[in-house]
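Risk register update: the risk of archive-format incompatibility is retired. Evidence:
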Amino acid sequence: MGRALKRGKNLTFAHASAELRSRIRRVMKLALVRITQDKTAHMCWTRLAFHEYVFVRRRVRLLGWPSTVPFQNLGALPLATLKRLHRRWCHKQLRFVRVGEDELAAHRRDPDATAPGKCVPGPPLRVRDDIKTSRFDPEKGEPVSDRRKLRTRGAISAKYVEDSDDE
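Archived output:
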């Protein structure tokens, strides 16, 4: 847990960040298992998954996440930020705490209030708009396949699906 990073001549940036990322994930998972007494407990790195699987189901909250660090998958964070998170974890500034019944009831339907830090919005969900349509050869203007296909209007759904939690 408190070990320093290995330093070697042929150790590249990717190796150092991968090792540190793995170490952070491992110690956080062990701490989550220890506090919940559940061997299947695991850390989730998205706002909705953290809310559902860690806060609501396991009744645990992550305290001490830096306000300047977005709460997202560790693979998207630079090495300096990973070192900062690891240092905070080793000094017990970043830790899991149990959630009381009052806090659980107050935030059961509010994922934004339970996220450890600010969250990065993901890209809009894109659905296929070419379902049941034929591929055409641009030179000949004919369908690519020889099989006869049922000609339909194509997909009726929108290209982007809004993820609305306002309901």
